[in-house]
């Protein structure tokens, strides 16, 4: 297998992009890459998206978007893995280049959600849950995560306010991200007074949806070795767990996150102590907590301690969601994994301004589909 590098990235602001179609939204970050690199041909296109078939009444996105960006002769496919569709598309592009099958591959994640009524989007998101024993019983993703959060609090003795630091950190970082949907800082008091969505999850525990797209161009490392802007993909792994939370031996342990993280660490020849920043999947503060524990950054039952002692700030021990994460940047589900990749690349290039992690050399991203049922972990390294 060949070593692979990310040569360039593109992204658009997460917003209610009423003036752009799904096609235009997906094409914009790819065209940014073309403009920055002077690229005139492309071997492969991998499109990550969850709900275009229902929300936008359009499938067959591989050929659809390849045609739009002028890559009609490239191989192109649509990759779906619920909220981890973006990272799944990135991993597919990575494997295509690493195998030697192609010399250039674009991974683009896109989701256009705000054109549809909120109840329809809520129902569509629930299709990533178990249809028979979760969705058809009325369990939305907010409800499932509320059950996890309540169980966690009861199991380990935490109070609601222990999770405030995660949201405060995300919004503090999002202020400095021009692509973030929610660019306002919040306080601990803001968090505690936020409206309840599904007890104990309030508005500040949950990521907001939006329209967005992000992309990455992957090429063989040997062709760009020594080029400062090119970032090496040092580790890539994926794992699954049961879709239904109730079917898990231990609902408070994200085994798929643990397995994918351990495999990525082994590939990259690093440990959690070597990671300079972690762009994790903070769709809910409880998932952020469980991800930290499963990935080896906190002991079991003690994840909230990191949010309390400043360890997750850009200058902390393990900086998290340095550009706002899903919470402040927004969560256009099929695009989220590629926003994480783009933000990690920016950190390793040292171009993140006020939220730049000092001397960042190794970054980790983790994109989660379902309630922990499909997890993709990537480790990127500065050359």
Cα-atom Rg, whole angstroms? 19 Å
What is the fold-level CATH name, i.e. the topology of the domain at 4-117 and 209-224?
Peroxisomal Thiolase, Chain A, domain 1
Q: Give the number of DSSP strands.
A: 11
**Number of DSSP helical runs:** 14
Largest sheet: 9 strands, mixed
List the helices and strands and how they pair.
Layout: E1 4-11, H1 22-37, E2 44-48, H2 52-55, H3 61-68, E3 75-79, H4 85-98, E4 105-111, H5 118-125, H6 141-156, H7 164-174, H8 188-193, E5 196-198, E6 201-202, E7 212-220, H9 221-224, E8 231-240, H10 255-268, E9 277-279, H11 285-294, H12 304-308, H13 325-329, H14 336-349, E10 362-369, E11 374-382
Parallel strand pairs: 2-3, 2-4, 9-10
Antiparallel strand pairs: 1-7, 1-8, 4-7, 5-6, 8-11, 10-11
Provide a short characterization of the protein structure.
The protein is of the alpha/beta class and 383 residues long. The protein has 14 helices and eleven strands. The chain has a domain at 4-117 and 209-224: Peroxisomal Thiolase, Chain A, domain 1, CATH 3.40.47.10.
Structure description:
- With 383 residues, the chain is α/β, with parallel strands linked by helices.
- The protein has a domain at 4-117 and 209-224: Peroxisomal Thiolase, Chain A, domain 1 (3-Layer(aba) Sandwich), CATH 3.40.47.
- 35% of the residues lie in helices and 18% in strands.
- The chain has 14 helices and eleven strands.
- The chain has helices spanning 22-37, 52-55, 61-68, 85-98, 118-125, 141-156, 164-174, 188-193, 221-224, 255-268, 285-294, 304-308, 325-329, 336-349; strands spanning 4-11, 44-48, 75-79, 105-111, 196-198, 201-202, 212-220, 231-240, 277-279, 362-369, 374-382.
- The strands form two sheets. It has a nine-stranded mixed β-sheet with strand order 3-2-4-7-1-8-11-10-9, with helices on both faces. A two-stranded antiparallel sheet has the order 5-6.
- A hairpin with a 2-residue loop joins strand 5 (196-198) and strand 6 (201-202).
- Helix 4 (85-98) packs across helix 14.
- It is globular, with a radius of gyration of 19 Å.
């Amino acid at each position: 297998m060949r070593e692979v590098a990310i040569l360039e990235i593109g992204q658009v602001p997460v917003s209610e992009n009423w003036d752009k179609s799904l096609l235009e939204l997906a094409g914009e970050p790819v065209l940014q890459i073309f403009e920055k690199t002077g690229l005139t041909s492309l071997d492969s296109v991998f499109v990550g998206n969850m709900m275009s078939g229902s929300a936008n009444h359009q499938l067959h996105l591989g050929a659809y978007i390849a045609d739009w960006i002028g890559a009609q002769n490239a191989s192109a496919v649509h990759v779906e893995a619920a909220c981890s569709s973006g990272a799944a598309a990135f991993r597919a592009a990575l494997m295509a280049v690493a195998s030697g099958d192609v010399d250039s591959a674009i991974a683009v994640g896109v989701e256009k959600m705000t054109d549809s009524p909120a109840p329809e989007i809520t129902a569509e998101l629930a299709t990533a849950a178990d249809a028979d024993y979760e969705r058809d019983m009325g369990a939305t993703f907010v409800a499932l995560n509320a059950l996890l959060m309540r169980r966690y609090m009861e199991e380990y003795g935490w109070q609601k306010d222990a999770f405030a630091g995660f949201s405060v950190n995300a919004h503090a970082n999002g202020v400095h991200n021009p692509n973030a949907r929610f660019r306002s800082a919040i306080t601990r008091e803001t968090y505690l007074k936020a409206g309840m969505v599904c007890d104990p999850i309030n508005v500040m525990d949950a990521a907001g949806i939006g329209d967005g797209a992000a992309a990455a161009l992957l090429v063989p490392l040997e062709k760009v070795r020594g080029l400062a802007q090119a970032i090496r993909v040092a580790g890539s792994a994926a794992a699954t767990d049961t879709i239904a939370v109730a079917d898990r031996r231990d609902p408070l342990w994200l085994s798929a996150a643990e397995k994918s993280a351990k495999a990525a660490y082994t590939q990259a020849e690093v440990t959690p102590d070597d990671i300079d920043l972690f762009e994790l999947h903070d769709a809910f503060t409880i998932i952020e907590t469980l991800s930290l524990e499963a990935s080896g950054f906190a002991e079991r039952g003690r994840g909230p301690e990191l949010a309390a002692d400043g360890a997750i700030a850009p200058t902390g021990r393990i900086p998290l969601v340095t550009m706002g994460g899903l919470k402040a940047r927004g969560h256009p589900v099929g695009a989220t994994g590629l926003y994480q990749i783009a933000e990690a690349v920016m950190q390793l290039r040292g171009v993140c301004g006020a939220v730049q992690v000092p001397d960042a050399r190794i970054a980790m991203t983790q994109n989660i589909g379902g309630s922990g049922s499909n997890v993709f972990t990537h480790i990127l390294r500065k050359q």
